[in-house]
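Progress against Task 2.4 (sequence-to-structure conversion) is shown through the following example record, which the project officer requested during the mid-term review.
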Amino acid sequence: MAGKSRPLPRPTDAELAILRVLWEHGPVTVRDALEAVNERRREPLAYTTVLKFLQIMTEKGLALRTEKDRGHLYRAAVPPAQTKRHLVRDLMERLFDGSARELVLEALGAHKVSPEELREIRRLLDDLTKRTR
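Structure tokens generated for the chain above:
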């Protein structure tokens, strides 16, 4: 298919919770998605609520639906890394005027960073520095 693909829509918080289930579990039924989402919630969602979210997510291009036997299976349309990159770029543009520096400084100042996280961040910065030389 030629031309530019449609931009990835920004998922809502509820859609992100369902996407996490789809990424972790692969193709799932509505019932499977409901159970997995509700394991992480204080107030459980109803079956019809999760079904409606999955239908909306399919229309938006966030999820894909295939028929299996007499039901449907849902899976994420986009891998988690691509979704995260898209959301970070969107946040950086909307909130930090495109400044990666401001985004990183705010993210690092927002909560305590473990020594392991700092080592990984240093390693990533070293790799970026090598690639830009």
